Amino acid sequence: MKVIYGGLLVASGGRDLSLWLLFAFVVANLGFAATLTHAWYLQKFDDYPRKRRAIFPFVY
Question: How far apart are the C-alpha atoms of 58 and 51, rounded to whole Å?
Fold first, then answer.
């Protein structure tokens, strides 16, 4: 999903503020959802890997 909005930014030349705001919203929304889902998996499943990251491997 992020790639679609990133492509729109590139296609517009990065000059459209509304596309920047849309891209920021999508990134924040997906990051928030990934964090909450990861926390839910950790709480719900005992055999879920504790060292698994929510978004980026070995980072976050």
Answer: 9
Per-residue pLDDT of the chain (60 residues; tens, 9 = 90+): 678 888 888 999 989 899 999 999 998 999 999 999 999 999 999 999 988 888 888 787
Domain coordinates in residue numbering, the chain = 2-44
DSSP secondary structure letters along 2-59? HHHHHHHHHHHTT--HHHHHHHHHHHHHHHHHHHHHHHHHHHH-TTS-TT--SSSTTT
Q: What are phi and psi of 8, to 5 degrees?
A: -65, -40
Q: pTM here? A: 0.74
